[in-house]
Design brief:
Structural class: mainly alpha
Radius of gyration: 16 Å
Low-confidence stretches: none
Order of helices and strands: HH
Mean pLDDT: 77
Number of helices: 2
Helix content: 25-40%
Largest sheet: none
Length: 47
């Protein structure tokens, strides 16, 4: 699941509760930098 902001997370939690989900498994945690290969580098200046 991809989410930006608390609204998407809250919706997923509410839906899971209504569907009777009791357990979850974290498959992977990643940031947008991990998935787009754009990482913040303090030594690089952007013009």
């Amino acid at each position: 699941m991809s989410a930006c902001g608390y609204g998407a997370i809250a919706t997923a939690i509410i839906a899971a509760k209504r569907l009777g989900v009791k357990n979850v498994v974290l498959l992977r945690h990643a940031t947008s930098g991990d998935t787009s290969a754009i990482h913040w580098r303090p030594w690089v200046t952007h013009q």
